[in-house]
Structure formats: C-alpha cells, structure tokens
C-alpha cells in the first residue's frame, strides 16, 4: 500500500514544529534510472531550513590491525574514515556516494553512536556529542536514528513486528509509556504504509520492501530529527526501491527530518539529495549541491564515477566519454601519500604525492563569476568537466 496522504499522529509528531507540510516540486528530469523516474515529486534542489543540525569536523575512525594470539600487538590500522567534515542542515538530504570500502558505513555508524570515533567532532545542535556519556548521550542519541541496508538480516526473525518497532521504547520509556506502546506501534505501521493489524506477525511473513518499511518505522519510533540511511534500498528490487524512496521523501516532508542518505546508485542519490558528498578511501573528494556535483564536477574521481552511470539516450551515450579507472582501490591500511586518488588519477603530478589537497573551493573557481563550479573539491588541479550529457 502506498498512501497518498500520510497521517500525522501525535505519537510521532516531531518536537517543536507542525507536522504535515506538503511534498512539493515537480518530478525531476528524466534520468533513465527506473527507480529515480518512478519516484514522484523529486527533491532535487529542495533547500533545507538553514541551520545545521549536525556539524562533523575532522572525523576519524581507525580500526587497529593486530597480530599474535596470546600477546596481541597492534601492527597498524585500517584508516576507514580519516578526516571527514560536513554539515547537515535541518530538513535536507545529504547523499554520500563512493565505491565499496571507502568508509560510508563507518561514517554512518559513527553518526549514530555504533562506533566511537578515534578523533574529531560530531556536533549536534552545536554540542560535541563525542564528549558526552551516560544520560546526556542517551538523550541526544534518541534524535539520530539509523535505517539499515539489509531488511532481511537487520530484523530479528524471532521477534514480532510489534516488538521490533517498539523495542526502542525499552531504552526510552519516556517516549511511550507501557500502556500506550501498542497504539504507537500501530500508528507507526500506518505511517509507513503497513496494516496496523500486522503487529503480531514475524519478519518472514513480509516482503523485502515491507521489511524495509518495518525498519523505517523502527527508526521513527523515538521521533528522531535525523535519520542516517545506509544503503536503504540497495537490497531491494528496482520497482520496490522507488516505493521506499518515495516513502522516505514523504516522511521527510511530514516530520521535517534531516537525512544522511548513503548509496551506491548515483541516480537514486541525485534524486533524493539536496547536497552530495563523494567519498574516496576514507576522505571526501568533492561536495556540493546535486547540480554542482552531477553537472559541474571538478574532481577527477567524481568525473570517473559519473562517466559510468548508465545513459538511456543512445545518441547521448555515443557522445559521452567513459573514463575507465586503472588499478585497484589502495588498502585503507596503507593509503597513498598526498592525494589518496593519485594512484588511479590520469592527471596526477608530483605535487599530488607531496601535499594533501584540502576540501575547499579551488582558488581558480573562487571568483564571483565561476558559477556552479565554485564548490569544494579536494584536487590540486580541479577543472570542470561535464561527463553526464545535458538533459
Ligand atoms: N570493525 C572493523 N574492523 C576492521 N576494519 C573495518 C571494520 N569495519 C569496517 N572496516 C574496514 O573499513 C573500511 C571501510 O568500511 P565501510 O564498511 O565503512 O565501507 P563502505 O563504504 O560502507 O563499503 P560498502 O559500500 O561495501 O558498504 C573497509 O576497508 C573495511 O574493511
Ligand atoms: S590532486 Fe592530483 S591526483 Fe588528486 S585528483 Fe587532483 S590531479 Fe588527481
Ligand atoms: Mg557500507
């Protein structure tokens, strides 16, 4: 079921604001991606409400590499996330894209507290939550929830749907007193387009898309402000992906949610995101609005990623140049010096091995007439190159 109008029950109305703002905007341009095109009311360019709800500064997560059985000795570290900074504004969707192993899930886990950072700050409404513990941390964590990739493994098969969705209330009973839980869980089922009477069923009785709706309902249970969705549609059939992306967009508008949306599929990310960050080997390579990243990329890695996106129009397909990257992604335990992309970059020069390019607007584009090319790009030799044919 895909309800046209989502109810806005009291149980999950966000704190401090009216619920129920209408989804706006015409559908985005044709992308050739069946998921993106099936999604109604595209959000391309939908602005957030201004103030940052999350400010990530110099986030680092190193996993120790150890050797020895009796005497474990640290012999190195996997630098999964190695100095990542970005803001998430209220009501916006920030997409994070990048190849497998570049650190996307680790960023997600750090944001929701499933991993502790090695260094860096995660500021929620101005307060660095990496410094909090106990009650104060618990109170903040309630506002940042996660939706996982695989709806088949992320739901406990031995628990009923009601218990799965209501489980967060065990940790935060103040949100839903015991006598009120059943009603609240039923409201959540309704909100995500499932029959409220499914409360006593088990996960195996649902399809993949329905299970992901259950995962989303669970993510909403504590009335969070921020949802970190780690590849929320990657494990689903293409037709079902569109429904789940639709649902996420509607929920965002209804409950004024801010999303960090992680995905492999660049077309889906473009469709749902207001801004996009491109990640490579533990760092951000480029960030900007969806238009800046997709139509005016200046970092060679982004250009290579985009050049591999399928183009439906045969003429456009003919006219574009595919950038084939040579070599494998280096190990995050031993990343290249300077620019991490240099071992695969066709433009690499000596400077690239010597100096880490900062993620900032390249000086050559820091002029009033630079247009959409003026956005942060961690490349010493950033230049604009359109790789996705104009639509
Ligand atoms: N608990 C851990 N211990 C050691 N290494 C880890 C751990 N978790 C992740 N890693 C490593 O950190 C790097 C980043 O992993 P991560 O799962 O964040 O990547 P990803 O971008 O989400 O990849 P994918 O697209 O495949 O999901 C990988 O090299 C991974 O092997
Ligand atoms: S800094 Fe050098 S190696 Fe890195 S992307 Fe730019 S040109 Fe390529
Ligand atoms: Mg991942």
UniProtKB/TrEMBL annotation:
Occurrences of domain ABC transporter (ranges): 54-306
UniProt biased composition (Gly residues): 18-27
Top-rank taxon: Bacteria
Protein keywords: ATP-binding, Nucleotide-binding, Transport
Gene3D superfamilies: P-loop containing nucleotide triphosphate hydrolases (3.40.50.300)
CDD domains: ABC_NikE_OppD_transporters (cd03257)
Keyword flag Transit peptide: no
Xref: InterPro entries: AAA+_ATPase, ABC_transp_ATP-bind, ABC_transporter-like_ATP-bd, ABC_transporter-like_CS, Oligopep_ABC_C, P-loop_NTPase
Positions of the UniProt region annotated as Disordered: 1-49
GO terms assigned for molecular function: ATP binding
Family: Belongs to the ABC transporter superfamily.
Name used for this protein in its record: Dipeptide ABC transporter ATP-binding protein
Phylogenetic lineage: Bacteria, Bacillati, Actinomycetota, Actinomycetes, Kitasatosporales
């Amino acid at each position: 079921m895909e309800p046209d109008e989502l109810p806005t029950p009291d149980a999950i109305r966000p704190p401090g604001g009216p619920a129920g703002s209408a989804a706006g905007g015409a559908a985005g341009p044709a992308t050739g991606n069946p998921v993106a095109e099936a999604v109604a009311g595209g959000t391309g360019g939908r602005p957030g409400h201004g103030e940052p709800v999350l400010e990530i500064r110099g986030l680092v997560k190193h996993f120790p590499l150890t050797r020895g059985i009796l005497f474990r000795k640290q012999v190195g570290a996997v630098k999964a996330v190695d100095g990542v900074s970005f803001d998430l504004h209220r009501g916006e969707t920030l997409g994070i894209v990048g190849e497998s192993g570049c650190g996307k899930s680790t960023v997600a886990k750090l944001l929701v507290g499933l991993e502790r950072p090695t260094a860096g700050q995660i500021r929620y409404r101005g307060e660095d939550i990496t410094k909090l513990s106990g009650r104060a941390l618990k109170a903040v964590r309630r506002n940042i929830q996660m939706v996982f990739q695989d709806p088949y493994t992320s739901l406990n098969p031995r628990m009923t749907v009601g218990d799965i969705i209501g489980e967060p209330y065990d940790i935060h009973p103040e949100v839903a007193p015991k006598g009120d839980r059943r009603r609240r869980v039923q409201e959540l089922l309704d909100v995500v387009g499932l029959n409220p009477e499914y409360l006593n069923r088990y996960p195996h009785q649902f399809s993949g898309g329905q299970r992901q709706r259950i995962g989303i309902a669970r993510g909403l249970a504590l009335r969070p402000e921020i949802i970190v969705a780690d590849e929320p549609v990657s494990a689903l059939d293409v037709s079902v992906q569109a429904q789940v992306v639709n649902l996420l967009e509607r929920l965002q508008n209804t409950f004024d949610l801010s999303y960090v949306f992680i995905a492999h599929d660049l077309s889906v990310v473009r469709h749902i995101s207001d801004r996009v960050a491109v990640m490579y080997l533990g760092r951000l390579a480029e960030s900007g609005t969806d238009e800046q990243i997709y139509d005016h990329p200046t970092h060679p890695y982004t250009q290579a990623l985009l050049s591999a996106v399928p183009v439906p129009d045969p003429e456009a397909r003919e006219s574009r140049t595919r950038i084939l990257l040579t070599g494998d992604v280096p190990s995050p335990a031993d990343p290249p010096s300077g620019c991490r992309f240099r071992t695969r970059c066709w433009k690499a020069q000596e400077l690239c091995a010597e100096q880490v390019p900062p993620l900032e607007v390249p000086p050559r584009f820091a002029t009033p007439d630079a247009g959409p090319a003026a956005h942060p790009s961690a490349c010493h030799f950033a230049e604009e190159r359109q790789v996705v044919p104009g639509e």
